[in-house]
Amino acid sequence: MRVLFLCDVLPVRHAGAVIPLADARAEFAADTGYLSACTMGLGAARVRRALAEDLELWGAGCATAVRYEQAIARSRAAFGRLVGVPAGQVAIGSQVSVQVAQVAAGVPDGAEVLCVDGDFSSVVTPFVQQAARGVRVRHVPLERLADAVAGDTWLVAFSLVQSASGAIADVEAVLEASARHGARTLVDLTQSAGWLPFDASSADVTVTHAYKWLCAPRGASLMTVGDRMLPLIPSVQAGWYAGEAVWDSCYGPSIELAADARRFDVSPAWQAWVGAAEALELFADVDAAAVHAHDAGLGDALCDALGLPQRGQAIITWADPDGRALAALTAAGLVASGRAGNVRVAFHLWNDERDVARVVDAVR
To answer: How far is CA 321 from the centre of its chain?
Structure first.
């Protein structure tokens, strides 16, 4: 039996409360000129407070594992609410590539995995590394993904929003084609969760690192696993935290794995989840449609100002082969990024129309 101390108890948020967009935006420092949520999100005030409090508790010898367990349970539940699945279908991890590697280990020998040309390597490389078993990875352009699903495709693995370009997959078409051909689906939500709503129950697996648009500390990633996929993924990285009863699973030679997606949990980086719980609850409780309208609306406003077609995207890129546009943005005190020969600008809760104007002034 474990003894609970006062410092073990974390505050519990009201589940399902809708936070007005203005209140959510007020959690972040205003007028930062930060245009790189696609690289790393900013820490909300509540996240920073929670981390500071945890540091003090750690220093006082009061940072117990029980308290961290509560943060993980809150994170799992909040992410489930955000993407529309029960908490029991959410596994925790530290990196997307680690979670994708678990899925890759379950691909049958000789099977085909269909991927997108130029997708983020964490979604692709774990499957490529299965080549010794005859696993075949086929790459196609994003716009041809749905049409490329074939009868021998075992899994379609793709990012809902492409990291390099911000392009959004025609996910409905891909899911429909996959269902028609009997293929399974893995969708990376790292560049979409937090601004682009998605029902994770429509995919067999989703993977998300929460440090970008969900503004959690780095080291907190989440995987949703549907019922069809649960028995097909081997728990190749199972440790004590994958046990049905975690505290009865600390010592070998064998443990009873959790019956649900927790069997894919990896031992958590505790402090990261203290911040993740606050961040995930913030985004689970804010009006997702309002966040999408805000972020994509700023993206479209920039496209209008630069004479580009509107894209309905929070990430806007345009050709910058010599890096001049990125250098101009940096010289103007803005934080942006460059990828694949393009300059990349991202709009999130802390941005507003002033940032659009600053970008235009800098690059014209």
So the answer is: 28
Residues 265, 299, single domain; the answer is no
Q: What is the mean pLDDT of residues 171-197?
A: 98
Domain residue limits at 354: 288-363
Do residues 153 and 260 share a domain?
yes
Please indicate, yes or no, whether residues 296 and 272 belong to a single structural domain of this protein: no
Which residues have a Cβ under 8 Å from the Cβ of 77 and sit 6 or more positions away?
15, 87
Beta pairing, strands 153-159 & 184-188: parallel
Q: Does the bond joining 231 to the residue before it have cis omega, within 30 degrees of 0?
A: no
Answer whether residue 3 is part of any domain: no
**288-306 vs 353-363: helix axis angle to the nearest 10?**
30
Q: Does the global pTM surpass 0.90?
A: yes
**pLDDT tens digits, 281-292:** 999 999 999 999
Asked whether residue 13 carries a pLDDT value surpassing 80, the answer given is no
The per-residue pLDDT for 254 is 86
Q: Please give the Cα distance from 221 to 123 (Å, whole number).
A: 13
Residues 164, 249, single domain; the answer is: yes
Distance of CA 168 to the CA centre of its chain: 15
Token pair in block for residue 9: 């108890």
- 16-40 pLDDT, tens digit per residue, is 568 999 999 999 998 999 999 999 9
Q: How many CB atoms are located within 10 Å of the residue 269 CB?
A: 16
Q: How many domains does the chain have?
A: 2
